[in-house]
Amino acid sequence: MSKKDRSGFTLLEILIVIAIIAIVLALVYATVDPFARFKAARDARRWSDAENLLNAIKVNQVDNSGHYISAIESLPAATVFMIGTSTSACDSQNANCLIDPASSTACVDLSQLISSGYIGALPVSPRGNGTWNASLSGYTLQKNANGSMIVRACENEGAQPVSLTR
């Protein structure tokens, strides 16, 4: 049987087709709404930050025989506070918050969790519509009458608001 009589593809031909398909798929993947992936990544970070804050608060509470740090102990129940180092303008970003801080002085400074080693740094929400920094983090804290805590992200870019309770 001669080479002309054989049918089928050579290994080189198959590899070229696979390479072309891979390139086309990469181009399609890159062009399919990258903004949606950025939004999802920012929301994932917000969920992670809220989880880390609640974990730090609760582990600290357990280590201190059920007592919160002084900044949280003194908070009135059912009031929403912006997490940050500011002492005024705590509600200046209310237009960007799903659940608004109660007043211009409704900030809570959780830096004691850093100095105690419960969290490396207080998180700052990734920039969406609001301008967030260490003084106004983009995360809120609410202490309920039963002692549970709610940490929320002011913004979300997905279907579900970022809110965790423990």
Task: Fill in the keyword field for this structure.
alpha+beta; elongated; five-stranded mixed beta sheet; 166 residues; 4 helices
Q: How would you describe what is shown here?
A:
- The protein is α+β, with helices and mostly antiparallel strands and 166 residues long.
- Helices cover 36% and strands 11% of the residues.
- A hairpin with a 5-residue loop joins strand 3 (139-143) and strand 4.
- The longest helix is centred in the first third of the chain and has 30 residues, at 34-63.
- The protein is elongated, with a radius of gyration of 25 Å.
- The mean pLDDT is 92.
Topology (SSEs and partners):
Layout: H1 11-31, H2 34-63, H3 70-73, E1 80-83, E2 107-108, H4 111-115, E3 139-143, E4 149-153, E5 163-165
Low-confidence stretches: none
Strand content: 5-15%
H/E topology pattern: HHHEEHEEE
What can be said about the biggest beta sheet? 5 strands, mixed
Class inferred from helices and paired strands: alpha+beta
Q: What is the tally of helical segments?
A: 4
Which strand order do you get reading across the main beta sheet? 2-1-3-4-5
- What value does the average pLDDT take? 92
Distance between the termini: 77 Å
Write a brief caption for the model.
With 166 residues, the chain is of the alpha+beta class. It is built from four helices and five strands.
